Structures are given as structure tokens and as C-alpha cells.
Amino acid sequence: MAKLKTGRHTSALKEARKAEKRSERNAATKSKIRTSLKRVETAVKNNDVKAASEHLATAFSEWDKAAKKNVIHSKAASNQKARLSKLVTKIKK
Prior knowledge:
Elements: H1 10-45, H2 49-68, H3 74-92
Helix pairs in contact: 1-2, 1-3, 2-3
């Protein structure tokens, strides 16, 4: 790509483009983790142990991926996973 004639702030323009792409990607990841969270909570609300366990596994995966990509903090992911585990184990008993 040829250098733009805008002067010193070409790097700032590029960073703005990168930030836009990253925010879109982060929004998609956050949407996935919220959806998986809602699925687990709905299954727990309906006392469906099998569905809750299946959705819990996918939710764990989504939370771990989001934490790995630094979309959310790793300890926030751990807290949510613990909370969901507690919900599912309550209905198992």
C-alpha cells in the first residue's frame, strides 16, 4: 500500500481500522457467551438435567475461548463457570 499524503497520523488511521475489526469480533464472542449462558439458565429453570449438562459443556467452552482471546477477563470467566456449575448441580440433586 502506498503511503498516504496525510502526514504523521497514518498509523492512527490504521489502528482505528484494526480497533473496528476487533470490536466486531469481540461483540460476536460476547453474544455467543451470553446465548450459551441463557440456554443453561433456561434448561435449569425447566429442570431438564440432560439439556442443562449439555449446554453447560458448550458454555464452558465459549467462556474459555473468550478468556483466551482476552475478550473477557479470565477470572470473570471462572466466576461465571462456577456459578453455572452450582446451578446445574442443584437440579441434579
